[in-house]
């Protein structure tokens, strides 16, 4: 790989990560395809951890008021048992419940999943299934709000998030699809989906810190990694804002079309 083009390739990869992380098209799948097209042999976890951290920061900034409300509301409910804060407390409990499946599956099977399914063909098939699922729920408009969620809802969405550990299966797509499928309103489905994203991503980042410290190529890759980080940070913010508008209008079918087209093209040409 020519050194002069290395920074540009990682800048593009950061943009791809940021643009696809919030939307239901699989960021991991798109990064795998982009790495192949750019000729980037990315074997370590440093790039993945850094760009995922960037996306996480952007999403936490967007949802900062919701996060603070859940923390303070839960604390107040535990101290006072005031019914006014019960909804926030239960929402936080369901976030914990929904996080458990991905944590268990990730700790036990993540390495095996990545070694077995990290191929372009797997990404293509996963995109086609994601497109089908998005098409099936395209017209659903649930009524459940934050205070209406149940243990079963949280567990089902959590299981969907665990399935998204397979490269090519969109995490946001699987959790939004499952949330809407359980009857949540679009804004509640989106909020619950990304509340689940936060603890799982934080855990992955913490577990990945030793890999960054031990990475032998880190000093020479400083500029490419910094560019990828900030590209992912900025693009994730705007992509998330855009997706929130799409969800409000109920236009998920367009993502379904996209997944079908890209999945078919990958099967044909790669």
TrEMBL record:
GO BP, one annotated term: regulation of cell shape
Leading EC class: hydrolase
EC number: 3.6.1.27
Gene that specifies this protein: uppP
HAMAP family: Undec_diphosphatase
Keywords: Antibiotic resistance, Cell membrane, Cell shape, Cell wall biogenesis/degradation, Hydrolase, Membrane, Peptidoglycan synthesis, Transmembrane, Transmembrane helix
Predominant subcellular localization, coarse grouping: membrane
Name the UniProt record assigns to this protein: Undecaprenyl-diphosphatase
Membrane topology: Multi-pass membrane protein
General function of this protein: Catalyzes the dephosphorylation of undecaprenyl diphosphate (UPP). Confers resistance to bacitracin.
Note: Bacitracin is thought to be involved in the inhibition of peptidoglycan synthesis by sequestering undecaprenyl diphosphate, thereby reducing the pool of lipid carrier available.
Species of the source: Saccharibacillus brassicae
UniProt keyword Cell wall biogenesis/degradation present: yes
Entry's localization field: Cell membrane
Family, per entry: Belongs to the UppP family.
A GO molecular-function descriptor: undecaprenyl-diphosphatase activity
Pfam families found in the cross-reference section: BacA
Transmembrane segments: 49-68, 89-109, 115-137, 189-210, 222-240, 252-269
InterPro entries, per database record: UppP
Catalysed conversion reaction: di-trans,octa-cis-undecaprenyl diphosphate + H2O = di-trans,octa-cis-undecaprenyl phosphate + phosphate + H(+)
GO CC terms, sorted: plasma membrane
Family annotation (PANTHER family): UNDECAPRENYL-DIPHOSPHATASE (PTHR30622:SF2)
